Amino acid sequence: MLTVIPDLLDGETLGRVRALVDAAEWVDGNVTSGHQSALAKRNLQLPEESPQAKQAGQIVLDALGRSALFIAAALPLKVFPPLFNSYAGGQAFGTHVDNAVRIQAGTGFRVRSDLSITVFLEDPESYDGGELTIETNFGVQRVKLPAGHAVLYPSSSLHRVEPVTRGRRVASFFWLQSMVRDDAARQMLFDLDSSIQALAVDLGHDNAQVIRLTGVYHNLLRRWADA
Ligand code: NI
Description:
One of its GO terms (molecular function) is 2-oxoglutarate-dependent dioxygenase activity. Residues 78-178 form the Fe2OG dioxygenase domain. By secondary structure, this protein is of the alpha+beta class. Helix 1 packs antiparallel against helix 3 and helix 5 (183-203) packs antiparallel against helix 6 (208-224). It is built from six helices and 17 strands. A hairpin with a 6-residue loop joins strand 8 (101-103) and strand 9 (110-112). The protein folds into two domains: 3-178, Jelly Rolls (Sandwich); 183-224, DNA Excision Repair, Uvrb, Chain A, CATH 4.10.860. The strands form four sheets. Strands 1, 2, 4, 5, 6, 10, 14 and 17 form an eight-stranded antiparallel β-sheet that branches. A five-stranded antiparallel β-sheet has the order 3-7-15-12-13. The protein has a two-stranded antiparallel ribbon with strand order 8-9.
């Protein structure tokens, strides 16, 4: 499942993130890669320990924590601190699968990557290429979103970033471990939750069937979740 989170960052928040990121020192992106993906990756990144990256990452995490859509779709258990990358002058990231387990340098904090997140931080009109291309069961999806929008996708999927042939693509990217490991189970919970929310608007939160379905949602979550 791909989930787009529109306006994860509002204009003011996006401006704060960009001011931090633009003032930071960029390095070769291969510092965070596994061996296989290092072969395919040509971009720049902010180092994990960069103070600006840490501050900007915290702003992104705070925004995620306020997003009901993100929480319902991801059911997050542990989130890796957001990283930042930049592509320009033909840079790209060839087809790859993200590493299964991410370990934060210095702290040993470990996250199994169930979902990958990209937060777009640049106006899509200002660069050519740079689509996030994801191979799904329903075919290839090409994602290029307005600045401040985010996309969630299964870390298990083959994906790539197309070459940026004009301008510069800046984004935040990171991974999370979901309370519900299985993509299909997580998708069903999200669909059920979305329908319950819609029914509650039509019928009222105290409607007996809404209450019963809410119970089913929580009992499925209890059955499937690691917490
Ligand atoms: Ni990737």
